[in-house]
Write a structure and sequence with these properties.
434 Repressor (Amino-terminal Domain), 91 residues, mainly alpha
Length: 91
């Protein structure tokens, strides 16, 4: 195994993998699209792969998963504007 697609390739289709994991088709399809399997599914994937005669480790899944992308807008850089009024000094 060299990539996350190899894990999905253990099953004939996304539907077959979803059925083996007792997950919704759309959920497993989203995993494949993102290139990442969430942590809460790792043990199910490992067990289902073992049934098919393929050994997968947590380390392999972790290595193959794409990093989580940060969501939302990046924080804006706030500029501190100083007042252009002349400072008044006490005489």
């Amino acid at each position: 195994m060299q990539a996350i697609r190899d894990i999905f390739g253990i099953w004939d289709s996304v539907g077959a993998m979803a059925k083996a994991l007792s997950r919704k088709y759309d959920t497993v399809l989203a995993w494949r699209t993102r290139g990442r399997i969430p942590e809460d599914a790792w043990t199910d994937v490992i067990a289902a792969a073992q049934i098919r005669g393929v050994m997968i480790t947590v380390a392999q899944i972790l290595e193959f998963n794409t990093p989580i992308k940060k969501r939302g807008k990046p924080p804006s850089k706030i500029k501190v504007l100083r007042s252009k009024r002349p400072e008044t000094r006490a005489a």
